[in-house]
Structure formats: C-alpha cells, structure tokens
Specification:
By secondary structure, this protein is an all-alpha fold. It is built from 15 helices and no strands. Helix 6 packs antiparallel against helix 12 (247-263), helix 8 crosses helix 9 (189-219) and helix 10 packs antiparallel against helix 11.
Amino acid sequence: MFAYLVRRILYAIPILIGVNLITFMLFFVVNSPDDMARAQLGKKYVTPAMITQWKISHGYNLPLYYNAEQAGIAKITDTLLVKKSLSQFTFNFGNSDQGRNINTDISQRMWPSLAIAVPSLVLGLFVNIVFALLVVFFRYTFFELSAVFMCVVLMSISGLFYIIAGQYLFAKILQLVPISGYVPGLDAWRFLLLPVAVAVISSIGAGTRWYRTIFMEEISKEYVRTARAKGLSNLAVLFRHVLKNGMLPILTGVVVVIPSLFMGSLLLESFFGVPGLGNYMIDAIRSQDFAIVRTMVFLGTVFYVIGLILTDITYTLVDPRVRLE
C-alpha cells in the first residue's frame, strides 16, 4: 500500500508541473504583464510610467524565464516562472493583485464552501442511489416509465431555474429561509438550507439516470441469477450484490465532484451570496485578479489528483478483486 501511494504521488508530480506551466503560459505569454497592468489600472489613458509602476509594485517586472541581469542561480530563480508559478508548490500563494493575502482568504472562505458542498454531495448520493434502486426494483412497470420521464424533465431544466424558483418560493413567498447571505456559526444552517436543497434537487435527474444505468447493467449479470436461484429476495439481491458491485463506477463519478468540495460552487455561492471559494473565483474573474485565478486553477488540479488517488484506494475496499500491486 505504501509503495503504491508513493508511486501514485510521483506520477502526480509531472501532471501538476505540466498544468502549472500551461497556466503560466496562458497568463504571462498570451496575456502579458502589460495587459494585466492595463486591466487592473482601469483608466482610459494609461501611461507607460503607470504600467511600469504597477508591475514593480506587484512583482511583475521580472523576466519570464531567464534573468540576465542577475548572477548565478538567481538568473533562474529571480524570474516570473519561479516567483509566480513554481512557488505555488510550496502552497504560499502570496498576495493578490489587489493586495490581499491569498492564503488568508482561502482559509476563511473554504469553510462556507465545505458547508454547502459536503451535505450536497452526501445527500445527493443517498437520494440518487436510493431512487435509482427503487426504479430498478420496479423495472418494466409504470413506476419506472414515470421515473425515467421525470428524470429527463429534471435534466432538461437549467440549474438557474432551480435557484431562482427556490429563492422566489421558499424565501420570498413562504419566507422560510433567507433569500441570500451568510453568517458564521450555528446560525449558518438557515442560509445553507436552501442552497443545499437546490443542489440536491437539481442533481436528481442526471444522477438517478446514471445510477439506474449502472444497476440495470449489474442486475442482468450471471451472479444475480445465481443469487436468486439460491432463494434470495429481490431486495437482498439489490442491496447485497447489485449495489456493492455497482460502487466502482459510482466512486469514479464521485472523483469529479471532489474538487468542488473545496473549490466551491460558482453558481450557488454567487446567487446566494455565500462568501466561499466559488464566489471568490467569480470575483477574481470579474476584477481580472490573475493571481487568485492562477491559485484556484492550481488548487483544483491538486484536489483532482488527490481524488484520483483516494478513488484507487477505495476500489480495494469495495472490490477485493482489485489489488494495488
């Protein structure tokens, strides 16, 4: 197990370096520091002196890859590639283009994002899997036909509709929850209840159809017929065998969601006014704060790689036939 983890971590390093270099090229080659200065200054007439002063104050006045004015190793280290890109591997992200400490912002904003993402993931998985098992249990009946039709309808509706309809019905008309905002502490549940409910409901259509496809494929296999021949009931077959053997593709699908647990939901946090990392990303894009955007892209890659490693480990717990060796 330890050797496997070390090997997977070593495999992840070139991936992180590659993503980091591509991000660096997009931000500093395609979009030069001069362009970043003009976007941040936001004035109609920007003089070269203003651009130079902005680059010096924000550390963008260095060469991209090679600093000929320095001596020794400083020719490589005193560059934008090392200062602004490779330094992210130390998880010291420095200051944003607006002067705020990025590490401090992330440590404060990650908790609201987790407060929305974790319940949404857990409840969404539970509701979708249970509903999919019910559809498989009543397969070839009117219930299955109606359920599949409702799933298609739910999938066809935009996620914005669920947000706006939930705010209008439960916040404005019924006044059961606040329409937006967030407060830290125990009272935060009142502000998180509606976003979590919207996230779960909007995922029912696609999630149920996906899990139904997995379970329908499993239930037609030979081991299911063998289990029934031994006298097991349909419920026992579903929960003891079909559900367990269908967990491998389910775990694979969960990997895609893992980065959002930490990165936040862009739409939910933006519309509900939750000060999480998703809202942080939206504000950075709107204000063209490239330091924050680079950091969030890097963190998203890190969490996705971690999710892949965790998925491979959980495979061995769900299916004994899978061996890490």
